[in-house]
Design goal:
The chain is mainly alpha-helical and 124 residues long. It is built from five helices and no strands. The structure holds heme C.
Amino acid sequence: MLTSLEIKGAVAAVTTSALLLSGTFTAAGTYRAHRRAGSDARPPTASELVTGRGRSLFFRSCAHCHGQDADGGEDAPSLRKLQISGSHMTLVIRSGIKGEMPSFAKTYTEQDTAAIVAYLKTLN
Ligand code: HEC
């Protein structure tokens, strides 16, 4: 038979080791999560931020016509490997094309438009 003191001692020992064990797992998990985030922890460059923003604007406003990958939709041409200049792209986006493509001059600021153009240039 165990005395009540021995039982208390045993319970305390079990509790302590369980706590230690879960502490170890938590620490390992945190370490691993940290490592994962840290594996490409390089902060994005300014131009990556701009093209990333351009890409999300593209998905929002252009992809339903020009395709998710800008490789052309049913009614709109591919925007990959465009032969036109950045300022021509800007003009098309801001003015639209009568009867074909809406104008985005009211939707997007010049900065937004520049971000979209920067994204389109990454597709070349
Ligand atoms: C309603 C569908 C539609 C939407 C939305 C649309 N486009 Fe277009 N876009 C067209 C069509 C159609 C053409 C081709 C017109 C032509 O060739 O006469 C075109 C042409 C273009 C061109 C010129 C391509 C070239 O080879 O000269 C660019 C650049 C362009 N779109 C970019 C965009 C961007 C960026 C967006 C989003 C901000 C967008 N378009 C949204 C339909 C669309």
